[in-house]
Amino acid sequence: MSVRSFRAARSPRCVVIVSIIACVLLIDAAPAHAYIGPGAGFAIGSSLFALFAAMLSGFVAIFLWPVRWLFRAVRGRRALAKARVKRFVILGLDGMEPSLAEKFMAEGKMPNLARLREMGSFHRLGTTAPPLSPVAWSTFLTGCNPGKHNIFDFLTRDKRTYMPLLSSVSIHESRKALKIGKWKIPIGKPDMRLHRKGKPFWNTLGEHGIFSSIIRVPITFPPERMRGVLLSAMCVPDLRGTQGTFSYYSTSKSVEEDYIGGEQVRVTRDGKFIRSALVGPPAGSEAALHSDENTSKNNAHVDGNLKCPFEIEIIDHEHASLKICGTQVPLTCGEYTPWVHVEFAAAMGLKARGICQFLLIATQPEFELYVTPIQIDPERPAMNIAHPTIYSTYLAKSQGPFATLGLAEDTWGLNAKILDDDGFLHQCMEADEEREKMFFDALEKVRRGLCVCVFDGTDRIQHMFWRYLDPHHPAHKGQAPRQRRTAIEDLYRRMDVLVGKTMAKCQGDDTVLMVISDHGFNSFRRGIDLNVWLEQNGYLVLKPDGRGKKYLAGVDWSKTKAYCLGLAGIWLNVKGREAQGIVEADDANALRDELVQKLTGLRDSANGEVAINRAFNAHRIYNGPYAAEAPDLIIGYNKDYRVSWEAAIGQTTDQVFHDNMKAWSGDHCIDPKLIPGVMFCNRRISDENPRLMDIGATVLEMFGVATPSYMDGRPLNVADVAVIPKGQRAAHVA
After folding, report:
1. Which ranges of the chain have pLDDT less than 50?
2. What are residue 461's phi and psi, to 5 degrees?
3. Are 534 and 407 part of one and the same domain?
């Protein structure tokens, strides 16, 4: 399929088909916990209005398409006439750590990156404060500091309720609905908002006639209109509207009362049969939409959700057979099924369609079955995850079904010890393989313009396997077989092969290739409960029964000046800003500076180590129209430290410091100067301290487009011609 075919795919017939598939019911958004616990999120859907709007726009498009095509062709030629390059390719390896890259290159284990460094350049890449993926990638794509793009963390707080909310997006049902019997069908547009502000630099390219292919760059959901194709990534929900809810079907009693990011469904045997149902999106009945007793905070197995029945026949100790949606799927212990298409019957004959994978864990003595989060079917998406909408359908038709969930790799299944190391690695490697097909398809199709693709495996695997790199990590011992202790080294070797394949596709003087990461990585040994620290120092007061309650429910707001929520920092309880604020606005800045002074250099009482390298007054480090939306303090943790799991969701414990015993053992929520990313390029770059925010401006300059005045980034000094070292062949090293 050519670039021209991508554009033609926006024909009225295709738009109408996808819109019909997208008619699913909505409910209001619930709090979201992102990396902390993606159990609660937002619901999905479209509306009947979208169908009629799509039909109308389709009829208009069919008459205007030849004129638009001619205009864009002429404009594109003019734009490229000013360009220093025909194509710019950016390969994002989320979280690649420069010290590990340097170590493995020195040991000869990453020959392709070493060759890329020799023919061009390698730099440590300045990241953002805080160095969290949504913040960093938002800065990458806008070229702006967070005060201009409005993303400061995975989470923000509701100023009225103090509840955690996903920072980047919100989706609510249409206020207008058609009632037919017990069903309530939305007839207006859903309120779907991307809270990330600022303009992606590829939109600026598009305004100058330059085509872009953007694949799985974080914080691009919901997708924005652009000149090109885009597949969204981080914050795309699952079919239930959450940030990823796995299911664990077992005949045994639950090990935990509440699995973060998932749920156990208790099943019983009927001879050799197990019968149960997948839990889908919220049902469209009025009772389901409004009944409090059918709703739970962690989206558990509730009556208010649509169901997809299934039956499993146990064959022997290692094998079973799954029957679902009229399909028979063989199950083998320890092996994932391929993606399985599932359907949930909704109102008026409509169906919500998704895909998931099944992993049979055991049949004896207890039955155990893991099911991945049920993801939006890219071939028939229940909501828009791509631009144009048909792009996800094209990818699914050409390469088969693929993971669409923003956080597709189930870290919480491994944390809960339902998945083992191999079960988690399978998901990471499969997601990277799916993305590689998309990326190389784009490189074949886009001969002029911008190609960007971000791979998540580097981030997810380092999060979960750093315990094997750090012999002093509390979770180092007894976690998994010895052969998985090289998981991170194996990951870097695989990424090096990917780089080599990419280099082979980017030969010639007309293509610039960059390999970047948004931040680096380090160990997460100890968590800091900042709410306990605030309590001990007189800034936070709990109700008599408030200790241990989640989502700040135990806080006495009439006496509390500051509180912690999310991964990045601390908020003040400001009068007139928070619903129950007590800090006078005129006193807020002095209080921020006071907390900065006390927290900077904070030491771990157990070992005397510095736990907080620096604290920042956010009002002094950000500028722009959204700077006031940031946490009041940004905490720059030292290596080995991070906010505790409990403090991140507003649950106060009884001590400041905690050992981190989870498989999630590596992190990057630390002082940005300690955690730079990487930047390799096939051209010489003479700048000594390049920053992530400079890349967008650099791409624009290479295409002959002036840097917009709102950008904080500045073009890097990139040489015009790559240098091929003597004796180096062009082909990649496998």
Report:
1. 1-34, 37-54, 285-302, 729-734
2. -70, -40
3. no
- Joined together, the tokens standing for residue 370 give 């893991």
Boundaries of domain holding 105: 3-237+382-521+676-702
- Residues forming a β-bridge with 123: 679
The alpha carbon torsion through 290, 294, 295, 298 (nearest 10 deg) reads -160
- Whether this model's pTM surpasses 0.85: yes
Instruction: Measure Cα distances from 592 to 27, 580, 599, 616, 671 in Å.
Output: 38, 18, 11, 9, 18
Number of domains in the chain: 3
**How far is CA 88 from its chain centroid?**
24
How far is the C-alpha of 267 from the C-alpha of 277, rounded, in Å?
10
Task: Based on the fold, state whether residues 509 and 642 are members of the same structural domain.
Answer: no
Is residue 714 one of the residues assigned to a domain?
no
Which has the closest alpha carbon to 126: 535, 617, 712, 734? 712
Domain check: are 132 and 15 in the same one?
yes
The pLDDT assigned to 345 comes to 86
DSSP 3-state assignment of 394? helix
Amino acid 442: pLDDT: 97
266 falls within a domain: yes
For the chain, how many helices (H) and strands (E)? 19, 34
Question: What is the predicted pLDDT for the residue at 659?
Answer: 97
Tell me, letter by letter, the H, E, C secondary structure of 565-581: CCCCEEEECEECCECCC
Q: How would you write 15-67 as a 3-class SS string?
A: HHHHHHHCCCCCCCCCCCCHHHCCCCCCCCCCCHHHHHHHHHHHHHHHHHHHH
Buried/exposed code over 681-716 (b: 16+ C-beta within 10 A; e: otherwise): bbbebebeebbbbbbbbbbbbbbbbebbeebbbbbb
